[in-house]
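Worked Example 4.2. Consider the chain below.
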Amino acid sequence: MKRTVLALLFFLLLMSSYTVAWAQNEEPTIYVIQKGDTLWGLSNKFLQDPHYWPPLWAKNPAIGNPHFIFPGQKLRIFPDRIEVVDEVAAEEKAPVSEPVGVVQERVFTVTGGEGFLLEGDAKPLGHIIATYQNRQILGEDDIVYADVGRSQGVKTGNRFSIYKEMEAISHPVSHVILGHKVIPLGTLQVSEVEEGTSKAIITKSYLEIGAGAYLMPYRDRKKVISLKAPTKDLTGYIVETQTGNKAVAAGDVVFMDLGKTNGLEVGNMLYVVRDVVPDQKFISVPIGKLPTDVIGAVVVVETGETTATALVIKSIDTIYRGDRLEMRK
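Applying the procedure from the previous section yields the following C-alpha cells:
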C-alpha cells in the first residue's frame, strides 16, 4: 500500500512539472486585427482585463490611436499577455532583449519640479520676509528669514520647500479661477526659531530665490509613478501648462481641472481627445457626432482637491491648453 501511495505521488509530481513546462513553452495564438477591433475590446476578450492596454499603448510608438488599430496588424496572444508583432524587426532578424510590446510594470519618474495649482483659499505656510544683507537673488547656502516660528510649531532643523506664485489660472470653458500656478524654487532648513519668525539656510536652489517666496511642507523632488487603473469615468480639460506655452508635447507638464473630489488618483492615465468637425459643404443632411480623435495621453503625478498635475507621456499631434481629457474605467 505504501509503495502504491509513493508511486501515485511521484506520478502527480511528474505531471505537475510537465504541465508547468508545457505552459511556459506554449506557442502563442496569432491574431490578425479585423476592421472595428479596439484595443480595449481585444484586451478584454483575450485577457479579461481591459486595463492592460493603456500602458502598452503608452509604451508602443507603433500604435497611434488607442481605440482603433489597423486591420492586418498581428498580435501574439499568450495566456497572460499580448504582444504586438514587429514584422519589420522580424524580417531583419534584429536582436531584441524582450519581445516587442511586452509590458511588465509601466512607471514614470518625475523630478518634483512640476509645480501645481494652489487652489481657492489655500494659503502657504509662510513666506520668506527678509534676506541676509537685503540680497535680491539667493542660492544655496544663503541665509533667509521667514514669518513662521514656534507659534506655528516650527522647530530647529525643520525643512520647507520654497515656491514662487505665478499668475491666476482660469478655466478655458467656464472662465472660473481655479487657483494660482506655483513653481518650485528650492528648499531650506530652519537654523534658529523665535515665537513668530525663524532664520534658515537655503539647502537647494533650482531657480532664483528672493523675498516673498512661498514656504510649503517639504516634498522629496524625485518620485516614481506607477500606472493605476481608473475606478470611474471622468472628463476634464487641460487648463494650463507648466511653461505657460499654449502648445505642449510628450515630456511636458500640464495642469487639469480634475482632482481628488472627482475620484482622480496619482497614476491614472487620461487620453487627450479632440472633436472632429465635418466640412459643412459636404453635408447634405443632418449627421450625428463624429468619433473623437485621440491625440495623446497624460499620467497624473500629483492631485489637489479639484485640480491635478500631469505628465504628457505620448503625443501623436500637438496638444494645446484647452484640449479635452477623458478617462474610462
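Residues 4-24, 88-104 have pLDDT under 50 and may be disordered. Residues 2-24 form the longest helix (23 residues). Compare this with Example 4.1 before moving on.
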